[in-house]
Task: structure prediction
Amino acid sequence: MRSTEYTDQQEQIARIAKAMGHPARMRILNFLAAQDSCFFGDINEVLPIAKATVSQHLKELKDAGLIQGEIEGPKVRYCINRENWELASRLFRSFFKELKEKPTCCE
Amino acid sequence: MRSTEYTDQQEQIARIAKAMGHPARMRILNFLAAQDSCFFGDINEVLPIAKATVSQHLKELKDAGLIQGEIEGPKVRYCINRENWELASRLFRSFFKELKEKPTCCE
DNA sequence: AATATTGTTCGCAAATGTACGAACAATATT
DNA sequence: AATATTGTTCGTACATTTGCGAACAATATT
Result:
């Protein structure tokens, strides 16, 4: 068939997975999911990389929709984007579920 | 604290997520999860890219542990690696679950 | 034995990702 | 007003990823 396009599902989950595809970004997500206070400085403190790089990673997570940030005085507060977090959760869940319906494969 | 290392959990899920972070590889996984016959040629047929590139993507998925391949005559049969698929499923599920235990964040 | 089929590997080009320090902008503090 | 704090953006360097065609290796077929 060789269709030129990928499905929205495939694009969507790939986009989220890609954002999760770096240990620094996973640590950020873990941290945000566990903490209530989540200023940039707090995040920066738990990562072994320069703040410029942390800022970049945060941008990628924000672009993927997994987090959001808002300015608060001179600081910036970052949070998990709960709506998209739920969406992502459902996407991955149903993706992995696909196989469970099949008894065996390739035999 | 600024630890130099990331946790095994973070490394592990990042590795899997990275492998899932491309629509072509998601299509491959979807295809393999749905099909019983899964020769290279079948996979190649449903992707809009050259076979050399398909082969590369398959290698990445194999290195990440999500699929496996075995030679069968002149053909190569690819399958989901069910054990690691289950592992990945659990990893993602518990990762996304983290947030559910917290009532609200950042307010 | 010669040829066809099936995938992988090689070599290359272009794009993207990762990381850093320096410079910058915006708000707080003195 | 001058200075300090907080993050982002810029410019750069290097590594990795993605993609392709050509060449290759291995098995099948004629």
Q: What stands out?
A: Helices of chain A lie at 8-19, 23-34, 40-45, 51-63, 82-100. Residues 37 and 106 of chain A are 49 Å apart (CA to CA). Residues 39-41, 44, 51-52, 54-56, 58-59, 71, 73-76 of chain A lie near DNA strand D (CB under 10 Å from a C1').
